[in-house]
Amino acid sequence: MSQYEAAHQLGKQFHAFLVAGDWAGIRSLLTDDVTWTLPGDNTISGTAEGAEAVVERAKKIASYGLRFELLHILVSRENMALSLHNTARRGEARLDEYLSTVCRLRDGKIAAIETYLSDVNGMNAFFV
């Protein structure tokens, strides 16, 4: 398997585990010192440091009932990104955002995640 195929497979697994709520599966894809940075000023913003904190963040995001629609898995020479369309409804609050979750890889695992959003204000209003 080429490095590009391996990166693509890692992205596919990450998305599948997230949709399924397979937290142990997500943990298996992460380095121990992984970080995940999200923009905004809300309950899920900032940087989660360490594999357990990243898994807890994924659990928290999923607990809001998001639908994680995978649009594309993108690979570079050394890294991978997921292009997603996330939607959810909680009472009158609605979330409808496009995002790119950029994953820096190390030794076949995710070592850093940075998420780019189309609607930071909408995310702030939804994740209160």
UniProtKB/TrEMBL annotation:
Domain of life: Bacteria
InterPro entries: NTF2-like_dom_sf (IPR032710), SnoaL-like (IPR037401)
Gene3D superfamilies linked to this entry: 3.10.450.50
One Pfam family linked to the record: SnoaL_2
Domain SnoaL-like: 13-112
N-terminal signal peptide: none
Transmembrane segments: none
Listed name of the protein: SnoaL-like domain-containing protein
Protein's organism: Amycolatopsis australiensis
